[in-house]
Amino acid sequence: MSSTSTCKSLSITSDIQIRVIKPQERQQVLDFLRIHYYLEEPLTAGSEPKQQDKEDEEFNMSNIEHGTCIMAVLKGDTNVSEQIVGALMAGPKGPHEAEHLFEEAAGLGPTKWGHTLQFLACVERDANICGRFNVEKVLHVHVMGVDSALRGHNIGGRMVEEVLNVAKRLQYEMVSVDCTSVYSAKIFERMGFKCINIKYYKEYIDETGKQVFKPEAPHECVKTFALKL
Ligand code: COA
Question: How far away, in angstroms, is 144 Cα from ligand 1 center?
Answer without folding.
Answer: 10
